[in-house]
Amino acid sequence: MATGPAPSGGRPREQRPHLSKMERVVVSMQDPDQGVKMRSQRLLITVVPHAVAGGDVVEWLIQKFCIPQEEALHLGTLLVQHGYLYPLRDPGILVLRPDETPYRFQTPYFWTSTLWPAAEMDYAIYLAKKNMRKHGALLDHEKERYVQLHKRINHAWDLVLMQAREQLRAAKRRRKGDRLVIACQEQTFWLVNRPPPGAPNVLEQGPERGCCTASPVQMTKSLDFYKREIERYRKALGRARVKSSVCLEAYLQYSVQHRLHDPILSGCLPGNPWITDNAAYWAVNSPTAAAPTKLRVERWAFSFQELLEDPLGRAHFMDFLGKEFSAENLSFWEACEELRYGGQAQVPALADAAYQQFLAPGAARWVNIDSRTMERTLEGLRQPHRYVLDDAQLHIYMLMKKDSYPRFLKSDLYKGLLAEAGIPLEMKRRVFPFPRKPWHSSPSPAVLPTSGEPMVAGGPGDGDKVA
Amino acid sequence: MATDGLHENETLASLKMEAESLKGKLEEERAKLHDVELHQVAERVEALGQFVMKTRRTLKGHGNKVLCMDWCKDKRRIVSSSQDGKVIVWDSFTTNKEHAVTMPCTWVMACAYAPSGCAIACGGLDNKCSVYPLTFDKNENMAAKKKSVAMHTNYLSACSFTNSDMQILTASGDGTCALWDVESGQLLQSFHGHGADVLCLDLAPSETGNTFVSGGCDKKAMVWDMRSGQCVQAFETHESDINSVRYYPSGDAFASGSDDATCRLYDLRADREVAIYSKESIIFGASSVDFSLSGRLLFAGYNDYTINVWDVLKGARVSILFGHENRVSTLRVSPDGTAFCSGSWDHTLRVWA
User: Fold this and answer.
1) Which residues form a coiled coil (chain B) (predicted)?
2) Do the Cβ atoms of B227 and A236 come within 8 Å?
3) What is the pTM of this model?
């Protein structure tokens, strides 16, 4: 897969910010005082200076960033995979070994962030050199690519071979140590830009971003954009803000309140299905469960929103409202939701149905809204749209929240539910060597009961007793 | 004419300057009410104990990079989409594949499960968002019932159903977001304001509903009123593309993950950034973020193949999870908070608990 071209002109957007961050790390590593210990590495008869041991690199990362061994090794490996460090021995594989294996820092000329176009011509010259230097040196995938390149840029092949010979000749004039290093540097560059099959392609990016504004935009569009921005800033300057101390306090309260309800933090009973391989927890907490758990019923007291969000909670609240002869409020609210989120084609019908049932004078389930809101709503209903009942809905919502909801929480109905609610027993994890039962499948919501297909058994497993 | 161009240039420059100066004033105003830092307030909270999460399920079946996933409300099914155009619906508890459809385009970067569980939406380089009803009828070809809903002028980066199966909210590389009626494909509202590609969106869990947040390549996170199409709040503190935005469970704040290797928390009432989740050793961009059920933990998937778990209140990193062998591209916590699922360019999805 070819690398992307150098960043296109137009927007001064830093592509791949991680590359410059990696470079900063690598530069720190080479600091004479604080960097990784440098040593000269003997390879057969050549001595290569400024090498570092893989283990020392990992150790340095652990100390510098205060991270565990595994993370340091992972980060170090990424540095190598991106070509910022290369192994002196076995330079064909870009991995970081946390031992005495010698590595060297890549020269900035070849740094990945330069995003050289790494053209086919350059790759062909590199492979040609490798082939010429030692016959049979090309790996299988390199041979394949060499052959493909020969086909594709056949017309320039003489140039390729000539360049290759010239570069090899120039290299011979260098000292053996330099020659080795330059060969490693070049090899690393190509391992990053033309990874062998199976190796990760670290240069791969998703689809190009920002190209829609890369081209010069018409003046008027820019003017509009800034005018909008200015308008937005002006409005923002006028908005009311709340003190940080108040806002942040709210997070504390929310987290503390919900802590025991957070399965990842506190576990859940009878057991987390993903850990115990048993779906009992879902059965016990299903939307239509007859006996809700204590935690679930407690949650209805956290906020009106949480009560309504739970179908079971909402159903019990509806019962309560029925006893108070104000169930039409909740039904009206539900009708408003249906309108707001309904299909566009159904808007007139839904609005009309809501009007007939809840708002018309003498309606069967007339809701009590203040006269000003009622007037505005009736006016709006002449030309119904999906938000036409917003004001009325908000009024009724607030009424329920401030009035009915607190009474519900104090009611015998709710107190009874709380008292009856149980805490499921913890299910013991099935221990080897008992054969594992197949994970329970469950009917997909997409299967309709009338489809004629038998419902797949999805009952709770053993041991889901409730205390 | 030459003189007109000159005049327009001056106007543009002066508008830019005015915008910059207003921006500065806004920052000053925001700072005035900032009387305490989050980690200071969090000193009163217990530290989190030892934290262990493991991969509990690995879903293999995509032949190429997994780009997006979403949970079904039944807490176990998921839909995932990949680079090669495949969209798969899994029962991730049993790891069985239940449905599969191949899109006519590559890079399906967005997918979503309908609230009813009876349909999925997806899109990508085709610039569209299409809805597929899910059917178990073996005689029916899923692709046959496909409905093309949204049309943008650049790639689709994110999509989400609202509270029903009948409306879809989309974000696109063309710099806009849009709300669509599924049945007719009608555009109900469009949202203009981002200066570059929009990469992500999330609907607010607010009780009186009707706002959503989006993040884009212009480094801005913008909060929109769905009814009027207006941007009601915007935040510009990231240093690079914002890849992911997610509301805090109470709806009073949202988190963002960006290519600048940080995640940030923005409070809507204080109207400012209130926390940055970063570490010097974290160099690669965060591609997707989500909160645990209580909002105490923030899970973030990164382009360096790892998942970092943050203590939202104290600001510290609690854990780092290894396992994926390429970028983590998508991450969502399950609807009941029992687990989270991550999708990666290594072709797999993992469920962690």
Assistant:
1) 12-39
2) no
3) 0.92
